[in-house]
Amino acid sequence: MVEYFTGIEEIMPLSAAPEPKRRFLPSKHEAKRVMKIVRAIREGRILPYRPPEEREKDEDVEVHYDIWQDEQPRPDHVMNIPAPKAPPPGYDLSYNPPPEYLPTKAEKQAWESADAEDREKEYLPTKYDSLRKVPGYEKFINERFERSLDLYLAPRVRKNRLNIDPASLLPKLPRPEELKPFPTVCSVLYRHKERVRSLAIDPSGLFLATGGDEGIVRVFEVATARQVWHAKIGDDEAVNVVRWRPGRDAMILSAAAGEDIFLMVPDVIDPETEQVSLDLLDAGFGYATNAVQALTANGARKDPVAKWTRPGSRLEDVGVLIKITVRSTVKVITWHRRGDFFSTVAPTAQKSAVAIHTLSKHLTQIPFRRLPGIAQTVQFHPSRPLFFVATQRTIRSYDLQKQELVKIIQPGARYISSFDIHPGGDNLIVGSYDRRLLWHDLDLSTRPYKTMRFHSKAIRAVKYHKGGFPLFADASDDGSLQIFHGKVVSDMMENATIVPVKVLKGHKVKSALGVMDIDWHPKEPWCSSAGADGTCRLWM
């Protein structure tokens, strides 16, 4: 073993290799390091060695820098306002003021006993025989400092003030007097024993159907409030919704109580119309008998989505002819404009929440396997084959012919309660439980065109007038109805005109519930409302 590092000097080297060339060339890396040190010495970042005594002497010397030594005079800004000058001194500031400016003994005592903030002056006039006897002013530095703060903390800049009348910035809306006719007063009162959940005026405008917690469907004459027909369809269940079939060729009333949907013909019409109505309801029984039963993969019969049956002799004697039983409690019934289809919504059902029923075939279909949310209500488009489904936060538009999603409308509400489509088909209004009323222009955007908040509690129902008047209304839990004038023109360049014209109050709030449902008269600018206080009102 060779010891490479020892204290003994060896004669022969460890290696006989020649010296490498790099040992004879100057190193570039060392040159960079040296230049870096030289540059630091020139800039003063590396100081030469000095004895500690000299360093202590230099540290004791304070160095003051003039930060304004390079300051150049600059012209004032165009909008600059020069600082106000201090007021010139008066007679009371003289070292030898006239006798009338000198305070009396009582005034001097009162000044000394008062707080500094309550004194009128910060000094007392004092008389001296000569200027040599005047002492230094003790508050001189404080006053100069406060003066500097006033100049520094109170910038003075000219501002162009706009003389604009705030009223001129508001949109010019017509006065409500110019937009008549619209309902203003309660003219007819329809009394019930318990809460009224739903109402509807028939297409002829003569009869009003109501349903509520009593489980009874009642039909009144609109003008006289006389009850002309009634039927008890729910023993323990409340009547959640009543709706008339559109069209004047027949008179069919639909109502939902619990999981059952009833179709009835009230005995208040002429025999010819009554016979046409009965034929429409009976035509589907033959089709349902000959229909092919749906089978599962195992070959067993599928359970039908809904059962179309006769309700029994007791109800048939009073005009209730068909009973449709579904799987969950029905909250909404909406008819197609032609009168052969109607849709129901049972929010608690999952896959079968929305169902479409065919009257002429006694057939029930489930159009959606699943919905992204809990279904709240549905509407058919007034002129096109579109079907609108509202969940808690969105409204989806489907094309029934192509069977595809057309549009997703996003009102921005937290919980949608109801919506209605304008008779023209291009606009819709949405009411929500978070007190918002939203107007949507379907051609403009999926977002609301206008958001209105006029109620202090949840909005339960919204409705357009379908009889040619540019009116719509909403009903709220605060017991009031808001009537709006909503004019829609065919000009694509002009937006809809929305003017609130009247607030109708009359319903009492009971158990935190106010107005439950509203409906318009098909011909007149009259509005009917159903309240939780057990009354229905007709506003004219």
Report on this model:
The protein is α+β, with helices and mostly antiparallel strands and about 550 residues long. It is built from seven helices and 29 strands. The strands form seven sheets. Strands 6-7-8-10-9 form a five-stranded antiparallel β-sheet, with helices on one face. Strands 1-29-28-27 form a four-stranded antiparallel β-sheet, with no helix packed on it. β11 (about 330-335) and β12 form a beta hairpin. The longest helix is centred in the middle third of the chain and has 20 residues, at about 270-290. It is flat. The protein starts with about 25 loop residues before the first helix and ends with a strand. About 30% of the residues are buried. The mean pLDDT is about 85.
Give a nutshell description of this structure.
14% of the residues lie in helices and 29% in strands. By secondary structure, the chain is an alpha+beta fold.
What attributes characterize this protein structure?
single chain; 540 residues; alpha+beta; five-stranded antiparallel beta sheet; four-stranded antiparallel beta sheet; 7 helices; 29 strands; 14% helix
